[in-house]
Amino acid sequence: DLPYESTDERVVTVVNTGSSSDTYYSKFIATDGTSGPGYWQETVKPGITTSLDSSTLPHQLYNIDRDVFVFRKTTWTDRLVGDTVTNESPSFVGEKIQQAFLHNNRLGILTEDNVVLSQSNDLFNFYYTTALTSTDADPIDISCSSIRPALLHGIVATAQGLVLFSKNQQFLLFAEEGSITPSTAIIRSISNYEVDANIDPIDVGTNINFVSKTGSYSRVFGMQTRGYDENPIVQDISKTVSD
Q: What is the pLDDT of residue 164?
């Protein structure tokens, strides 16, 4: 029960006696900007890193006028609340980004075996807006659980969800009901085909085409997804050339 009057920008830590993962931080905003009456506003833990390094994240090719483009750094939203436990940095921090994409008003990033989606309708925000509760608009950070190494390098959006490609395995990111949210997002393995990591899979109507290479020849496969609980139909649509 915080006081009605205090010093401007005073920060307090509110600790749950049952769990440290529910800890949050509040800053006092005085009405006159100095001290006295005011209100408390949720804030970030003092002393921790709050921003992402824009120089090593995806840049923008921005259209400022007809036929005029500017290549520039992206302005990413800082961590405004919580700490490194209740509002941790996205999993792509410190890792190599393999792919970036847009899906359902979210910016997505593939790195290692993780898929990270930004806040809904806030493309450059990968942090929670509050450490007190989870909302459907919050960022999504989910990993592909597999017994094989799964370095994700390709993604194609389908009616069933997002088809994710690694070198030796394919996955489907989906939600059984409604839109993909932090509480409904599911990743399942759907096939185990070898895919060339240097050639992105492409959507050609109702099929997804991808290239598989061996030491002596290449093949092009066509994949057609069939739903959450069904394996996709995959056909070899190329001819093997011996030389």
A: 94
